[in-house]
Structure formats: C-alpha cells, structure tokens
Amino acid sequence: MVQGEVLQQIVDNVSKCILGKRREVEWILTAMLAEGHVLLEDVPGTGKTVLIKALAKTVQGDFHRIQCNPDLLPSDVTGVSIYHPKTESFVFKPGPVMTNILLVDEINRATTKTQSALLEAMEERQVSVDGELYRLPKPFIMLATQNSVDFEGTYMLPEAQLDRFMFKLSLGYPDHRTELDMVTSQKSGHPIETLQPVTDMETMVQLQRQVYDIHMDDAVMEYAVQMVRKTREHADIKLGASPRASLALIHASKAYAMLQGRSYVIPDDIKDLSSYVLAHRLILHTEAIYNGQSQASVLQSVVEQVRPPIRMEQ
User: Fold this and answer.
1) Which of 127, 169, 197, 243 gives a 20 to 30 Å CA spacing to 37?
2) How many whole angstroms separate alpha carbon 298 and alpha carbon 236?
3) Which neighbouring-strand residues pair with 91?
C-alpha cells in the first residue's frame, strides 16, 4: 500500500531524533491516524517532548505546548473573548488548544477544573468560550505527559478523562548501546534542528479518512469486543473498559494495519494494541492491588482468556 510507505517514512524521520523507540513512534502515529489522544507517563528526560516536536515537524503540523501548573486557568487553554472598543464587540483570542498537535506537559499538575476544560476539546474537537463554539483545526491530536514518580503538587486524572485517551504509553530508558549512540549523535547539535518534513497536514487528513476503508473481518471485530467485555467480568476488576474502549481498539487496529502496509486487520493487531488501549481504563479492586496485581498483569490474564479467531476472510 502507498499509504504504508508514506507512514514508514514518517516513522523513519521521527526516529532520527528519538533513537531506539521506533515501536513507540509507531504507536503515536497510529493514534494520530485513528484520531485519538495519547497519555505519556514516564520519568523526566526520556525524550517525550522531543518525540512530539519531531512528529509535528515531520508532518508540518501547527504545534503548541501548554506547561501545566496549579495557576493555569481554563481560559489559558481554550482562549478568551476580549472586548474591542472600536467595534464595540467581543473578539475571540484563540488559546493554545487551537492547533494540530498539542503537547500538554505534566497534565497532572493542572487543577481538575483546568483538566476538565480539555475534555470537550478531546472528545468533540471544539471549545466553548462565552457561549460560542469554536472548532479545532483538522487534524487535532493531544499528547499529554505526566511524571510517574513525582506526586507532590499533582492531581489525579479523573476516570472520564483517562477514558478519552486512546493510548497510554511509556518510553522508558534507552539501552546502553542506544544511549551511547544518542550522546555521540549530538556532539555538534540536536538532530531535530536539521529535521526536514516528509508530508503535510492535508495528506494526514486524507490518511485518517482512509483508515475507515481498512477491512476488518466480523470474527476479528468479535474478538476485539469480547476482549473488552471480559474486562467487565474479571474478578479482580472493579470497573472494566467502556464501549468507548471497544471503538478505540477497533479503530486503532485499522490504523495500525494501514501503518504496516496492510488493507486488513489481523488478530495480532488487536492483541498487540490491547495493553496500550485498555489497561489505563481499568480500576482494580483494593484486594487485587494489595495482592500485587497491576492493570497490565490483570489485562494480560484477560487477553489469555479470549480465544482469537483461527480463520478469517481478507
């Protein structure tokens, strides 16, 4: 598929700036194709911001960054209407959310009121300011980061907001060889300074539309839905994945298949994506947590219970 070639060029280009994380770059590009948002949870200094900037530069997308803190107001995110004396009318001054690629850095440092201001943008691709609706540019993807070890001065993300993130990812530390290559490659400057674009926003919008044409056999669709439904029946899970999770898993699998150059989804696409799409949506019983269980480990047991289809039409 021609789409697969273009998408692999994007992955190759971004990977010049973030070494050893090709798989993670593919997941983020998959989310963008599937019109989903990504939560990156990791320790500082692992390349989260660099990856997002490299993606924006590669696809020539408008890029804005919000640095979250307790003083950040909802209007600092969405924008504000300012009275213009000459025209005797209010003029809308767009906030940073009016962009293609939005980086919300340390989202858990913003108050719950400010976090809630992002919900409409994430789900409806619009913001409401003083009773007026303003549509966000197309495409729009929000990538939020949060520190996994620093809890001082932070606020937990509500379940409703976590459910609106298609993926939750972690980059992790590079291995020894990759870290050495990274240090060596930056002797004379950072690779992102000379990074060249390989496509544009118009092409990305077209690719997003083409995701819907990727074939998914009924048996594979049943496999995805069964996996989500099983999370609602597991003894260790207090709150399972929502129907929104089923839609996210299916659409993300189509986008990932296109990224791999296929015109159809295979069961392994569902299985590979399940931990990134479903785990963060689960709430475990207190006893399961005390027994050392995690969302990832419980989800793995769910995946093992659901039998993948053996045959399917392509």
Assistant:
1) 197
2) 7
3) 82
Contact residues for 287 (Cβ-Cβ < 8 A; gap 6+)? 236
43-71, pLDDT tens digit by residue? Answer: 877 888 889 999 999 999 999 999 998 89
Helix (H, G, I), strand (E, B) or coil at 91: strand
Q: Which residue has the tokens 């770059």?
A: 25
The span from the CA of 153 to the CA of 135, in Å, is: 32
Are 170 and 148 in contact by the 8 Å Cβ rule? The answer is yes
Domains present along the chain, CATH in parentheses: 2-181+198-203 (3.40.50.300), 214-305 (1.10.8.80)
Q: Which residues contact 157 (CB under 8 A, 6 or more apart)?
A: 39, 107, 108, 115, 146
Q: In this predicted model, what pLDDT tens digit does every residue of 216-240 receive, in sequence order?
A: 999 999 999 999 999 999 999 999 9
Query: Taking the mean position of all CA atoms in its chain, how far away is CA 147?
Result: 16
Q: Please say whether the beta carbons of 127 and 78 come within 8 A.
A: yes
Q: Report d(CA 20, CA 10) in Å as an integer.
A: 15
DSSP H helices in 125-263: 159-162, 176-185, 201-211, 218-230, 243-259
